[in-house]
Amino acid sequence: MRALPLVLLGLLAAQFPAAAAGANATGDLPQARTARGNGSIAEARLVHPTDRYRHFVLGAEVEAAGLQVRLKDGRTLQIDLPADQVFEDRRPRIVDLDGDGRDEVVLVRSSLKTGSAIVVVAERNGMLAIVAEGPPTGAPRRWLNPAGIADFDGDGHLDIAYVQQPHAVGRLRVFTLRNGALVEIAATGNTSNHVAGSDQMGLAAIADFDGDGVADLAVPSFDRTRLRFLSFKGRVHEIGTKPLNGQAVADFTLVVTAGHPVVEVGLAGGRREQVWP
Length: 277
What we know:
Blueprint (H helix, E strand, L loop, with lengths): L1 E2 L2 H4 L2 H4 L19 E2 L4 E10 L12 E9 L4 E5 L4 E3 L5 E3 L8 E8 L3 E10 L2 E7 L10 E7 L8 E6 L6 E8 L2 E8 L16 E3 L8 E5 L5 E6 L5 E7 L4 E10 L2 E8 L4 E4 L2
Antiparallel strand pairs: 1-19, 2-3, 3-4, 4-5, 6-8, 7-8, 8-9, 9-10, 11-12, 12-13, 13-14, 15-16, 16-17, 17-18, 19-20, 20-21
């Protein structure tokens, strides 16, 4: 058995970037990860911990007030959010969403007025700016958790999948960047990819599970006792579903067995289970 190459999975490096140091005397965000890219953005990290948004869905009593980006040309840029907003996230995702050869960063922004939304941050005129955002959840402390970024419908453009309110609603939504706006292209229910209070955000996996050449998504059912394999080609449909020997609670990984992608699920009690359609 061998680890699944990141190049085969496309955006796994964006979903699960290399871990950075945790909280320390310099005020790093607890459990935050620094994303590293190979394009126009070399590095992205969340900065300025703050307790102004008191939700604590990821376990720590602080969230990030800003994002710092180091560009390939050596410049460092930063965006700081207004006083009623935070990045309720730990994993910046560096991707070229619009295919123009310049990277963007995808994050979860949460507002005391409107709740959480997916936002796209990019360089504009030498500064970082939010250039697109998805619909907000409507009220504070209604969080969403990204599930992955890939070309889920096979049209050649990257899409963003997330679970809206994985603890209370469990609706999987997929958006694509079109003409500068995030447009919803698919949605389905009965999903979850997070345990409240945990810093484990990666309860999902991307691979071509049905062999049709298009990326699929593996994500737990709402009660996290089953693993659902979903395709978005043509319409949302389930490739298969498998019961788990416990509840999914920890980040997933992918391996290849006999040439096929297999999801290694983190279960309660520290156990790991390999699952495929």
